[in-house]
Automatic annotation (TrEMBL):
UniProt key word Zinc: no
Keywords (A to Z) from UniProt: Electron transport, Membrane, Mitochondrion, NAD, Respiratory chain, Translocase, Transmembrane, Transmembrane helix, Transport, Ubiquinone
Pfam families: Oxidored_q4
Encoding gene per record: nad3
Protein name: NADH-ubiquinone oxidoreductase chain 3
GO CC aspect terms: mitochondrial membrane; NADH dehydrogenase complex
Reactions catalysed: a ubiquinone + NADH + 5 H(+)(in) = a ubiquinol + NAD(+) + 4 H(+)(out)
InterPro entries membership: NADH_UbQ/plastoQ_OxRdtase_su3, NDAH_ubi_oxred_su3_sf
EC number annotated for this UniProt entry: 7.1.1.2
Transmembrane segments: 6-23, 55-79, 85-104
Enzyme class label: translocase
Amino acid sequence: MLMLMITLIMMITHILIFISILISKKKKFDREKNSPFECGFDPKTPSRLPFSLQFFIITIIFLIFDVEISIILPMIISFKLINNMIWFITSISIMIILIIGIFYEWNQSLLNWKF
């Protein structure tokens, strides 16, 4: 009885797949539409092509300052909950670290956009 049910389920599944293939609107198989899309790179080319280091650095800078926003916003909300001196020292130290980082990036000329 179990084998009969499994066979029947498999047959129904295959029939439904076959019917969906027959009546589908996509008849023409295009290489571009069938290939996976990965960030604009062609998956059929070698993966060891030269990559723009400037793009990578700008991405890292963006992530750093995105995390900075997620640190600063709760600090503003917690101003009333924490001792003012502790809050002040913490916020100033975070700001000094970020300012030193931005001066380092500026000194290394990582913020120059070259096209």
